[in-house]
Design a protein that fits this description.
This protein has 317 residues and is α/β, with parallel strands linked by helices. Helix content is 46%, strand content 13%. It has two domains: 84 residues, no CATH class; 185 residues, 3-Layer(aba) Sandwich (Rossmann fold). Helix 7 runs parallel beside helix 13. InterPro entries: DprA (IPR003488), DrpA_SLOG (IPR057666), RuvA_2-like (IPR010994).
Length: 317
C-alpha cells in the first residue's frame, strides 16, 4: 500500500475531530503527534496490535483510531491515484516539500493537497482583510501586493472576495507568485466567481487545502484555513477589517504563532473602522502606511525563525 494512502486516510478520518477541536471539544493534537513519534510510521500504527494503541485514557483518540483502522484502504488508494493523475499533489507532514514554517505552529495540517507549479513556500507574505472593502482597501490590497511580489516574495491569501482577491491579482499584476489557501477541498473553488483567478494562480503559484475531496466545507473550515495562511508566512498584513470578527481572530491566531502582523493605517473618519484599526493595534499589530515599510522590515529580518513547538519532534529524514 502506498504511504500516501495511509496519510490521506488518516487525515480524512481525523478531519471531523479536528473540526471539533476548533469548537473546544478537543481531540488532543499533542497525543496525535506522540503516537506518530512512537510508531514512526502510519503503516506501523495501522498494523499495530490493539493493546499497543488503545492503552490510553483519551477516549476521543481511541474512537478516532478505531474509525481509521476500519477504513477501506483500497478505496483510499484508488482516490490517491485519481488525484495524482489529475494533477493534484499530496504533501504529507513527513515530505521534504512540506512548508518548514508550517511545521512549527501548534496544530499543523498533516496533509496538504496542492495544485499548481509552485512548491517553494519559504518566502511568503500573507495579505488578508474584509470581504467587503472600501475602494481604498481594494486598491491598497492590489497595489501593496504588487509591490511586495515585485521584490520576489510570494503572496499568500485565502481566495475570498474583497481583500484576498485584490491581493492575488496584485501578485499576478507584478508577474509574481501567489498561493491561495482554500477553506474548501482542493477540487472546489469558492467563491465561484474566482474560478478563472484560481486557474491563473496555478500557472505560477499554487492552490493549497488540507481537506480531501470527500470532505464538505463547514463553518469552521475557514477558521482552520486561516492558521495555514499565517503559518506559511514571514508576516501578515491586514489591509482593512470588516464588521465581523474574522480578521480580529485571524490576527490573534497569527500573533499566537509568533507571526509579525502589520495593519494598514486607516485613512478616514468612519468611527467603526477607526475603532477596528485601534483594536488590531492594541492586540499587537504594527501600523504601516506603505509597502516600502514592510519590504524594509522583511529585508532587515531575512533570517526569521519561529520558536520550537511540540510538533517539530516528529520530523522524518
Amino acid at each position: 500500500m502506498d504511504n500516501l494512502t495511509y496519510w490521506v486516510s488518516f487525515c480524512d478520518k481525523l478531519h471531523p475531530y479536528r473540526q471539533s477541536y476548533y469548537r473546544r471539544l478537543s481531540i488532543n493534537i499533542g497525543n496525535i503527534f506522540r503516537l506518530l513519534n512512537e510508531f514512526k510510521s502510519l503503516k506501523k500504527l495501522f498494523e499495530a496490535p490493539e493493546d499497543e494503541i488503545y492503552n490510553t485514557n483519551d477516549k476521543m483518540i481511541t474512537n478516532f483510531l478505531r474509525t481509521w483502522r476500519n477504513a477501506n484502504l483500497d478505496a483510499y488508494n484508488s482516490e490517491v491515484k485519481r488525484l495524482l493523475d489529475n494533477g493534484i499533489n499530496i504533501i504529507s507532514y513527513e515530505d521534504k516539500a512540506y512548508p518548514k514554517k508550517l511545521k512549527m505552529i501548534r496544530d499543523p495540517p498533516l496533509v496538504l493537497f496542492h495544485r499548481g507549479s509552485l512548491m517553494d513556500f519559504d518566502n511568503c507574505v500573507a495579505i488578508i482583510g474584509t470581504r467587503n472593502p472600501s475602494d481604498f482597501g481594494r486598491q491598497s490590497a492590489r497595489e501593496i501586493s504588487r509591490d511586495i511580489a515585485q521584490k520576489g516574495y510570494t503572496i499568500a491569501s485565502g481566495l475570498a472576495k474583497g481583500i484576498d482577491t485584490g491581493a492575488h491579482y496584485g501578485a499576478l499584476d507584478a508577474g509574481g507568485k501567489t498561493i491561495a489557501v482554500l477553506g474548501t477541498n482542493i477540487e472546489t473553488i469558492y467563491p465561484k466567481e474566482n474560478m478563472n483567478l484560481s486557474v491563473d494562480i496555478t500557472k505560477s503559484g499554487a492552490l493549497l487545502s488540507e481537506m480531501s475531496p470527500s470532505q464538505q466545507t463547514k463553518k469552521f473550515s475557514f477558521v482552520q484555513r486561516n492558521r495555514i495562511i499565517s503559518g506559511i508566512s514571514k508576516c501578515l498584513l491586514v489591509i482593512e477589517s470588516g464588521s465581523t470578527p474574522g480578521t480580529f481572530w485571524q490576527v490573534k491566531l497569527a500573533l499566537d504563532q509568533r507571526c509579525k502582523v502589520f495593519v494598514l493605517k486607516y485613512r478616514g473618519y468612519d468611527e467603526p473602522s477607526v475603532r477596528r484599526f485601534r483594536e488590531l493595534i492594541k492586540l499587537g499589530g504594527v501600523p504601516f502606511s506603505s509597502s516600502e515599510e514592510v519590504i524594509n522590515h522583511l529585508e532587515s529580518n531575512s533570517h526569521w525563525v519561529r520558536a520550537d513547538t511540540l510538533t517539530q519532534s516528529y520530523i522524518t529524514n
